[in-house]
Recover the amino acids of this structure.
């Protein structure tokens, strides 16, 4: 009976909460701007095969490192490929890198964090020590070592970045779980004899979802930069497929002769990362329960 | 009186010190050198540092003639089994130890016998070294060795102080003591190596800088930026694509020399399972691959013409180049025909591994596009250099894009790669005739006989193609205007004799 | 307090052991043979085998681990395979470089981040807040290496104001040393400034709402006195904590920054060591940074407890 009541209460509360969050979010111009930027790049990436641009690997020996023109609005690269086309296809790689690596981090980190915060005791101690050890190895060094171990490729870069980001999500999920567990209504639900599974799915997961969403959005931004950094060291997307980071890696050798090769991918990384950061920030504000 | 004299002396010194400001030459290198012990060292940039730090028994001219350095003369016996060398008598090491026959013998023995010696294989033909008199040594050989003098013109012929080597042992490389024009001052890993002029050098008058500082700056763009900003006086390995803008810059000068080395694709023809594909098993597929490549387009697109297209282990300008096999024109139709003849009318799929650095990847992407038009679909497998190397040795590759820095003697560019027991025969190639030709070329001191042997070998290799040669890099040095007397050498070294800088 | 420190130090031990096992296995999993990499173009099998024996690379991995950790306990971290210098000496040589970079970057980050955060909180909801936020986020969104290369091109090559790269020991010439490090420190500092700005902003926001600020204002104190003396001082607690925790981020950032500006510090050492499979160096560095990181954490917690009495009850 009690469980039914609480169930009803939460399911009724949800739409109201959602609409309040949406209102708050909408009124935040910065967050809206972030959302628009992200949506733009996502759409471009999805539509890549349909857009009227040459293939990203089509070479033209007669047009090597040529500046922007009608035929190539963003110019051509070091072996005569269209930079605009590579930017569009590169958006796929860069966005994928961000989303997939964060997905990995969430899927690995959140269950471990919940387990750690829920069970406490030895499980918690063990998971916490491993998390600390992972955190203590600087993120990029870890990613470099992992990418080197797995071999340079976009997929492996995503795995490496994902694994390096796991500790943040373990910590976050653990902290949230522990604070939810001390709430009175959880205490009473536990006293009523709710199963572990029910407790976790009904109380803990909905409560840790907002901060994970915020952290996830922000981490996507970091992950996109990390992929670019790994590409910069030669450990990211491999030729001839483009990613913004690997385009920059090559472009740095032609800064004087062909500045457009560095300008556009650099600007795109900046914009999309800024978009995710603004979006994440807006979400944080909108979802912050202290602020209403 | 005495006081007055001292005062005058002091004044004179003071004046001299202010009049002639200590001059430092700062050279930007592409990598950080490894151990500074000639017997243990491995890196190319290490050799550049040694060039100023250590004297060698003999040196080379830009045309690869062997000339005296610490050895004033040498003579092979009639049977080619004894080499007698006479040595300079006015040489001391940086620690004051005199250089003499005894020191030379010590050094050659160290190169041969030190367990850590990377030089052992270079001087493996030597069976004994003995002192004849204070300035003469006699080297006995197990078999005639045409490459020996060339080896002695490099690290194997570098002389280090026996006294220092004895006290320092394996740590010699931390504070090396040689007899070169500059002596070791300090080294900070990945930051700098500082040398200072050695007044006691036998040719000191020819070296004009008080100190030389080597600064490793791996990024070519940053290296050039440092030169332009005046933080370097000179750099090695300017990017070919920066040559045009550097030449146009009035404050910079450039110098070039075609290197002794090459870049190629090594094909796995017999090194484990991965040699089982069409590329490894059928020479016609390899010929088709080679025919599908337009080497001059690679040179133009990737290097703006600043490399020498090539199809043999030595450049077309080398006296060892086999003129019967000039670089073929690209011929897509012929390549397709060869594929069809080999039983692949629909083309073949191959995987080529390449180091994950932008320039080599550019080269392979151009080749990928070209070969694709002939029906050879290449997928590129980028690997970090350490992985590339171990996979290549282990045969875990189908084809591998790698280069070789080159050696003075032609033997060093070919023998170890394609002879059956060759130390770097990663292709797993084995052909008794080629073995016979190349082993023969090694033991003969007759130029014509050697040339005939190399021509014989290359006739077979051009057919079998265990290595598909692509181009020969060009060493490009850039320096500030005001540096005079720089002589480009095809070995890529920087020799400071006669070099001056007027600011 | 002592009990707290004791407990934390005790907990640190298994973490450090975990780090050591972790870095060791990761190393051994890396493809590529260190001896082969070292050999480069000179691959004489006899010498390679001799070196493998010499560096005990043929031992079973467990034996290798205990040899290493045993030596490490006596302060011997082995020697670099590449240059034969002792790893401990290398770390001693590189540490001051990275610390200088980190300190300068932190100073820049604080100089930008804290005032921006204070201003942004004070003018919450206005366009100033909005601009400060977007600018801070921009700092976080520019890839370090891109900013670095652009700055080299602009400031060193085009304008010739600062050297393009390199390092000058502080002891040699303090002023020149700072000048050389200015650009890299700025690049590294911008990202951190954003983080600091945001933490300052939220700390200031909660302090500004509190009763004693209202009291201070009611007393008729000048606004800047309220803001700086009362509000910022109280907001400093979380800011200081965050700053200590930025250590890890600083180190990771230093890895790339040192690569771009060719600074011979920790980061460059470790990246080159990974690529060269210079095992002893990578292990030594990760172990040292790991331990440093853990102690920074303990220090941050301790500082937090000292500064914030409420925490003590927990």
């Amino acid at each position: 009976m009690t469980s039914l009541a609480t169930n009803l209460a939460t399911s009724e509360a949800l739409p109201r909460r959602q609409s309040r969050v949406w209102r708050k979010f909408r009124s935040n111009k910065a967050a809206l701007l972030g959302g628009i930027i992200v949506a733009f790049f996502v759409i471009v990436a999805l539509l890549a095969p349909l857009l009227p641009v040459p293939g990203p690997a089509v070479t033209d020996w007669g047009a090597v490192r040529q500046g922007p023109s009608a035929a190539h609005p963003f110019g051509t690269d070091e072996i005569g490929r269209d930079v605009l086309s590579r930017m569009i296809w590169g958006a796929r790689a860069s966005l994928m890198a961000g989303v997939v690596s964060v997905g990995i981090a969430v899927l690995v980190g959140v269950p471990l964090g919940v387990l750690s915060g829920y069970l406490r005791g030895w499980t918690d101690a063990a998971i916490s020590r491993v998390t600390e050890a992972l955190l203590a190895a600087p993120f990029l060094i870890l990613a470099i070592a992992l990418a080197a171990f797995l071999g340079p490729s976009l997929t492996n870069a995503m795995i490496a970045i994902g694994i390096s980001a796991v500790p943040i999500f373990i910590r976050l999920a653990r902290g949230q779980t522990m604070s939810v567990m001390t709430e009175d209504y959880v205490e009473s639900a536990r006293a009523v004899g709710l199963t572990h599974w029910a407790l976790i799915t009904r109380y803990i997961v909905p409560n840790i979802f907002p901060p994970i969403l915020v952290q996830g959005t922000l981490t996507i931004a970091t992950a996109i930069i990390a992929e670019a950094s790994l590409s910069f060291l030669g450990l990211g997307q491999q030729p001839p497929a483009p990613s913004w980071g690997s385009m920059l890696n090559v472009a740095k050798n032609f800064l004087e002769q062909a500045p457009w090769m560095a300008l556009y991918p650099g600007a795109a990384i900046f914009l999309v990362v800024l978009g995710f950061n603004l979006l994440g920030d807006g979400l944080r504000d909108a979802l912050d329960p202290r602020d209403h | 009186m005495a006081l007055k004299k001292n005062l005058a002396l002091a004044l004179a010194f003071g004046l001299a010190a202010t009049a002639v400001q200590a001059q430092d030459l700062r050279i930007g290198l592409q990598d950080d050198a490894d151990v500074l012990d000639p017997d243990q060292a491995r890196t190319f940039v290490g050799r550049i540092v040694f060039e100023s730090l250590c004297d060698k028994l003999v040196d080379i001219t830009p045309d690869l003639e062997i000339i005296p350095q610490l050895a004033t003369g040498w003579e092979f016996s009639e049977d080619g089994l004894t080499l007698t060398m006479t040595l300079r008598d006015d040489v001391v090491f940086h620690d004051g130890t005199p250089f003499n026959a005894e020191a030379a013998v010590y050094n050659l023995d160290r190169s041969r016998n030190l367990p850590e010696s990377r030089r052992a294989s270079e001087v493996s033909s030597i069976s004994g070294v003995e002192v004849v008199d204070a300035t003469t040594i006699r080297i006995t050989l197990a078999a005639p060795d045409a490459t020996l003098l060339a080896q002695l013109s490099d690290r194997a012929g570098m002389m280090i102080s026996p006294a220092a080597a004895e006290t320092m042992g394996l740590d010699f490389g931390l504070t090396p003591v040689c007899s070169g024009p500059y002596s070791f001052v300090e080294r900070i890993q990945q930051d700098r190596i500082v040398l200072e002029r050695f007044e006691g050098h036998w040719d000191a008058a020819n070296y004009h800088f008080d100190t030389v500082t080597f600064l490793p700056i791996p990024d070519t763009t940053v290296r050039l930026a440092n030169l332009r900003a005046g933080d370097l006086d000179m750099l090695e390995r300017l990017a070919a694509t920066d040559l045009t803008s550097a030449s146009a810059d009035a404050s910079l000068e450039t110098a070039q020399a075609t290197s002794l080395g090459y870049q190629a694709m090594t094909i796995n023809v017999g090194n484990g399972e991965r040699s089982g594909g069409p590329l490894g098993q059928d020479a016609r597929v390899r010929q088709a691959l080679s025919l599908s490549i337009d080497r001059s387009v690679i040179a133009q697109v990737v290097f703006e013409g600043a490399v020498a297209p090539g199809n043999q282990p030595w450049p077309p300008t080398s006296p060892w180049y086999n003129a019967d096999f000039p670089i073929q024109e690209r011929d897509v139709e012929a390549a397709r025909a060869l594929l069809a003849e080999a039983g692949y009318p629909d083309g073949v799929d191959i995987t080529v591994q390449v180091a994950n650095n932008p320039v080599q990847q550019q080269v392979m992407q151009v080749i990928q596009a070209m070969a694709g038009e002939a029906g050879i679909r290449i997928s590129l497998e980028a690997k970090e250099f350490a992985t590339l190397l171990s996979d290549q040795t282990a045969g875990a590759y189908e084809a591998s894009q790698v280069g070789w820095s080159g050696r003075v003697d032609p033997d060093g560019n070919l023998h170890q790669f394609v002879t059956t027991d060759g130390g770097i025969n990663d292709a797993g190639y084995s052909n008794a005739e080629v073995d016979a030709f190349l082993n023969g070329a090694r033991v003969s001191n007759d130029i014509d006989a050697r040339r005939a042997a190399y021509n014989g070998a290359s006739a077979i290799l051009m057919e079998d193609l265990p290595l598909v040669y692509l181009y020969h890099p060009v060493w490009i040095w850039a320096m500030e205007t005001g540096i005079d007397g720089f002589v480009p050498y095809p070995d890529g070294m920087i020799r400071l004799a006669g070099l001056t800088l007027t600011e | 307090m002592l009990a707290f420190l004791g407990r934390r130090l005790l907990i640190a031990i298994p973490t450090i052991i975990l780090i050591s096992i972790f870095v060791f296995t990761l190393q051994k999993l890396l493809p590529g043979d260190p001896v082969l990499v070292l050999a480069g173009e000179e691959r004489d099998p006899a010498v390679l085998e001799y070196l493998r024996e010499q560096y005990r690379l043929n031992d079973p991995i467990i034996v290798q681990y205990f040899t290493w950790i045993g030596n490490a306990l006596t302060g011997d971290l082995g020697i670099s395979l590449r240059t034969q210098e002792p790893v401990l000496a290398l770390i001693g040589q590189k540490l001051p470089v990275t610390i200088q970079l980190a300190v300068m970057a932190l100073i820049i980050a604080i100089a930008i981040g804290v005032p921006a955060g204070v201003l942004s909180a004070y003018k919450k909801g206005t366009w100033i807040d909005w601009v400060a936020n977007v600018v801070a986020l921009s700092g976080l969104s520019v890839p370090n290496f891109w900013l670095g290369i652009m700055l080299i091109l602009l400031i060193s090559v085009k304008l010739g104001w600062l050297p393009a790269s390199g390092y000058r020991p502080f002891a040699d010439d303090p002023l020149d040393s700072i000048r050389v490090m200015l650009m890299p420190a700025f690049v590294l500092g911008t990202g951190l400034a954003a983080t600091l700005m945001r933490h300052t902003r939220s700390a200031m926001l909660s302090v500004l709402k509190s009763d004693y600020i209202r009291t201070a204002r009611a007393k008729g104190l000048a606004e800047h006195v309220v803001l700086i003396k009362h509000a910022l001082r109280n907001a400093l607690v979380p800011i200081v904590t965050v700053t200590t925790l930025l250590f890890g981020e600083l180190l990771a950032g230093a890895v790339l920054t040192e690569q771009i500006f060719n600074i011979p510090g920790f980061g460059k050492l470790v990246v080159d060591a990974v690529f060269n499979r210079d095992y002893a160096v990578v292990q030594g560095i990760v172990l040292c940074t790991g331990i440093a990181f853990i102690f920074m954490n303990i220090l941050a917690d301790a500082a937090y407890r000292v500064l914030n009495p409420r925490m003590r009850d927990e």
Notes: Chain B has three domains: 55-173, 182-259+477-501, 262-472. The radius of gyration of chain B is 25 Å. The CA atoms of residues 265 and 401 of chain B lie 4 Å apart.
